[in-house]
Amino acid sequence: GAQAKRLGRNRSVGYRRQFDSHAGNRLRLVQELHRALEREEFELVFQLQFDADDRPCGTEALVRWRHPRRGLLGPAEFIDACEDSGLVLPLGRWVLREAVRHWRRLDERGWGALRMGVNISALQFQESLVEDVGQLVAELGLPRGALELELTESVLLANPVDAGRAMGALNAMGASLAIDDFGTGYSSLAYLMHLPLQRLKLDQTFVRDVGRNPDSEAICSAILRMAQGLGLGVIAEGVEAWHQLDWLRQRGCDEFQGYLLARPAAFDAVLERLGASPGRGVVGSAARL
Ligand code: C2E
Ligand code: MG
Ligand code: MG
Ligand code: MG
Fold first, then answer.
1. Given ligand 1 and candidates 44, 62, 240, which is best to mutate, with the most ligand atoms within 8 Å of its CB?
2. Which of 31, 98, 220, 243 has the most crowded CB, counting CB atoms within 10 A?
């Protein structure tokens, strides 16, 4: 009777407090993120990608927040709050512009054949991506295939008809399109076949299991065969071991990204790494003599 009521109320008060403090934290975080954008506390790191002959073929731009007290934060700490608050729109615009600016610096050094991959959030894709990319291309100019936009399956499934149309428009502007974390979502092959897509990014959970989980291996093989059939490129994400790379390469995987080959790094470190790699031309061959 009365006791149960009291207990119930106490429980709900405790719950309420917890909820308030969670909401309060989120609010503070969003305020901090607003300031971070104004104060330019965000930066990009870049992770090189390699083809089956070990040549660099691209790089993915990954956002970081240089927090004044907490140090360098990864997207897991703030991307959701950006998405919920709409801040991901100005942040995403900034990321796109910075990524393109850095691609041009690569191009100046003779590495213009590398792609620049940029992660796109659901809200950004729905709201402003076509416009943002259009503006960038008009303003800065960009050869076909220099910019690759990484979309997730859930982003595409949210609104299939519009997704296809937006992707067509992006392709027409010269941006290529990849599905990120492929294999973790629910998109069907029949659906994918009708989208203007260039590449699948095989999710790291499958790559991690190569050599130890036959089910994951079967999925990897099937994805690779399917991609070949559809004329799509496949890049394996999260490659951490040689046996993973060898296994995937033997089954026709085109490209590789992971700590084994390169960690995400500041742009200057990437340039340094490229400068020392074979095939660089004058500087590279001189360094090898
Ligand atoms: P993602 O696009 O799947 O990026 C790959 C993530 O895997 C990166 O984490 C990268 O550092 C990490 N990674 C790379 N190689 C390895 C490896 O060999 N082993 C392991 N365990 N991990 C590896 P990061 O930088 O923390 O980014 C996490 C996610 O945050 C990204 O996943 C992407 O979905 C999102 N993200 C990153 N930058 C942006 C951005 O500018 N905008 C948006 N909307 N999302 C972003
Ligand atoms: Mg990505
Ligand atoms: Mg991924
Ligand atoms: Mg991922």
1. 62
2. 220
Ligand 2 mean position to 148 CA, how many Å?
Answer: 10
Instruction: Give CA–CA dist 148/193, Å, rounded.
Output: 19
Q: Indicate whether this complex's ipTM tops 0.90.
A: yes
- pLDDT of amino acid 13: 56
Mean pLDDT per block of 10 residues along the chain (289 residues) reads 50 60 87 95 98 96 96 96 95 97 95 97 94 94 94 85 92 96 81 89 95 93 92 96 97 97 98 71 35
pTM (predicted TM-score): 0.90
Q: Which two tokens mark 204?
A: 């790291």
Close Cβ partners of 120 (under 8 Å, ≥ 6 residues apart): 92, 129, 149, 150, 151, 155
User: Ligand 2: distance of its center to the CA of 152 in Å?
Assistant: 9
Q: What is the DSSP string of 98-118?
A: HHHHHHHHHHHTT-TTSEEEE
Asked if residue 109 lies in contact with residue 271, where contact means CB atoms within 8 angstroms, the answer is yes
* Residue closest by Cα to atom 29 of ligand 1: 75
Whole-angstrom CA distances from 212 to 114, 181, 208, 217, 242 are 33, 20, 9, 8, 14
Q: Enter the tokens of residue 38.
A: 């104004």
